[in-house]
Amino acid sequence: MINHLQDTVTLHNGVKMPGLGLGVFKVEEGPELIQAVKAAVKHGYRSIDTAAVYQNEGSVGEAIAELFKESTVAREDLFVTSKVWNADLGYESALAAYETSLNKLGLDYLDLYLIHWPVKGKYKEAWRALETLYRDGRVKAIGVSNFQVHHLEDLMKDAEIKPMINQVEFHPRLTQKEVRAFCQEHGIQMEAWSPLMQGELLNNEVLKGIAEKHGKSVAQIILRWDVQHGVVTIPKSTKEQRIIENAALFDFELTEDDMNQIDGLNEDRRVGPDPDNFDF
């Protein structure tokens, strides 16, 4: 379990990944995103998660370039993630998509590259491309996103390299117990997207009660729950004060009863698409 903002988890290939990062899903290109990334790094964040389909890699790259120019942080201290979109899940097209993402981000390599969704009949060819990038030293770690247990089993039947990460929707209404257990058994680190359920959980009475007891916000309680479950988490915010608050998780601990109460909120309910039944 991580104990401060720059603590890392060690992936099965030995790469160290920050346990808490900044997500930029649905944040448009432009000054707001640039300032959010710069504020996050200024306040100690070292992990930034984007994707080709977010159409904001350019602004993330611009922010990183400014941070380098200001000598705020060195490249080796950052952990940058992007994802290959569904339209590019062939072997050659995934390789090309990686180059496009690198160019937009203005980087020589990514720390983590993920297959964004398990599109039936396509993700194995894309995985071969990711394995090539990894073997060639172009990317530090590779993984998947939104893969359920059967997708992971199917991929791993033919894969030469096991995914290092599975990034999935994870919050108290969707605790992904089977996926978590499978990932733990196979040494695949689970990572949470939409950890706050896009704000839907912030008025939950159970969470509000636990938050009041600890003198914390509901968001901090949920993110601490992620941390204590050993799940890497990437809350999104563009507001500097919220970015700071989201990282203030290390001066308290949820009790076993707190954890059980939060686990008990599970309804297997998603705010995002169902990986077994989606159409993009």
From TrEMBL:
Record Pfam families: Aldo_ket_red
UniProt-listed SUPFAM superfamilies: NAD(P)-linked oxidoreductase
Oxidoreductase keyword on record: yes
Domain called NADP-dependent oxidoreductase: residue spans: 31-267
NADP found in the keyword field: yes
InterPro entries associated with the record: AKR, AKR5G, Aldo/ket_reductase_CS, NAD(P)_OxRdtase_dom_sf, NADP_OxRdtase_dom
UniProtKB keywords: NADP, Oxidoreductase
Membership in a protein family: Belongs to the aldo/keto reductase family.
Name this polypeptide is given: Oxidoreductase YtbE
Gene giving rise to this polypeptide: ytbE
